[in-house]
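ok trying this again, last paste got cut off
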Amino acid sequence: MGQDLRSPPIPFKPGGPRCIALVGPFQSGKTTLLEAILARTGSIPKAGTVEAGTTVGDASAEARAHKMGVGLTSVTTSFMGDHYTFIDCPGSVEFVQDMRAALPAVDAAVVVCEADERKLPQLQLILRELEDLGIPRFLFLNKIDRAHKRVRETLATLQPASRVPLVLRQIPIWNGDLVAGFVDLALERAFVYREHKASEVVALDGGNLDREKEARFSMLEKLADHDDALMEQLLDDIVPPADAIFDDLARELREGVICPVLIGSAIRENGVLRLMKALRHEAPDVRATAKRLGVASGDALAYIFKTSHLQHGGKLSYARVLQGRIEDGAMIVASTGEGARVSGIFSLTPTSEKRSSAEAGDAIALGKLDPVKTGDMFAVGKAAPEILHFGEPLSPVLAVALASIDRKDDVKLGQALQRLTEEDPSLTAVNDPQSQGVVLWGQGEMHLRVAMERLRDRFGINVKSHPPAIGYRETIRKPITQRGRHKKQSGGHGQFGDVVLEIGPQSRGEGFAFREKVVGGAVPRNYIPAVEEGVIDGLTRGPLGFPVVDVRVTLTDGSYHSVDSSDQAFRTAARIGVSEALPQCQPVLLEPIHAVEIVCPSEATAKVNAILSGRRGQILGFDTREGWTGWDVVRAQLPEAEIGDLIVELRSATAGAGSFTRSFDHMAEVNGRTADQIVAAHRVAA
């Protein structure tokens, strides 16, 4: 019997507008549910569809083109006198950063899923994010009209994804193989669905009554695990008061010890009003959210959950006001200590009205707050708010090298990438010294494709892309002594430099070393730095076409001319000596090897091992993932050249849930046919 965790008997009364995240696996119906909510609450005259491209959510050109969520949609509506902002989060794991940025701002989440075992790993990833942040959550079992299993069988299938009990709040009413309505287990009332209308109350009798009693008792048993008084009533066959049951449902949801499960069909707008009423009576408010975030009372405070750069240079910061009042024109200070003035407050309703102020609980868009970015807090006043940390940034898993097609767009490309990475911190743009271009890192193939589409459509920059260069190197196996001589006479002062170099291999990873053992002033000391520079010049491209590493070079002898010798002459002589020596030193190709750690559902581990073996990987072992039931961690060493599109194959094998991290480990020799192919391909590309 569990401990009685009930709070003092003070009725729960939400204060101010509430903010709810719609989250769930890819194509579970989140955008369709948002559309149904907006239609049922009167914010739009009729629900649009994803297929027709008429939804309020997923309204960007990229989302419409790909028929999938590629960014957050935030919209405010009213229901029974209360205001709600719904944040529709992308379901694809490639765009999960948007969800992670939004979650700290919300009071509760609705996890939209369906009876599909293949999406169970994705569901577990999402529930784990919510659990770790302590966010109360409902599970909305969507597409109930297409279900092929009984709802309690489906619940048993989904339960492993959640660390807390999934508590069924409704059971379907079946008419043959079709779902005709539902029974609310808390209300003990039956409803029949009506197409795009509110459900109709019907008599609860016959087989539906028997099923309701059994399912209701199961619900009460789970609630009683955290309420000793309710447990005693069940043991004594005493019917608990309806008010006490609703209090338990609301309290245990807010305390995060249960996850209530509601059913419906978003496309038919079935179950939507029941969901809204559950949110109205049971979801916490902004006061609880501020407490969860550890916000100290004081100045007006807000959290930035999204940043958007507009096509013509404007910037919008989407914020949730956590306490106090923010007025248009107010001076704010960000967590970084930088100040700015609010320049426009806009509602998140479909019509985006301008407003003069925002209160605690409101979700709004703010104009021209240049110092703040996604994830920042800001306050009205002089004291900078504390920086809140919500987990490490996602590690990038796929990269593409970019270059503007029109060279005059090079500066614009850099500025546009800076804006894109500010909007989406899971994108990273780095300058690649090897290719002298830009490499864009992201979370997958679609993530990078959408980024390039935004460069084109929003910023007017057309780019060409190709796989990034692999960090191949070469080294030598055999030592040699080589003279390098540069002599040129062209009238007036000539050029003369003469060096003798001992060139030999170093142990792997020791890098480059230069020494000098010149005696008798054969090479004057003031020219020795120029000799070292010339040696380095000669090592930048070896006989195989790659930079040369792990080499020691010793200057042992040489000669000079009192008039014609110079720094440049000795630098050239040293470069000539190295270039002529390297082909005689048995050059060998090196490739970078990375330590890779893959997380995947246990049923996919064998597939992952096969993928790694097929990519010349060395599997070091695997173990269960700590704290994750049904997941494994696979560790391996993999050539950098084989990591390029690993994430594409990995996600295909793991129903979109697998991912990996990597770090450079060492350089390894490549021989035989593989080395010949790499060298030949490099020469063609050059």
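PB: full thing came through this time. Confidence is low (pLDDT under 50) at residues 1-10.
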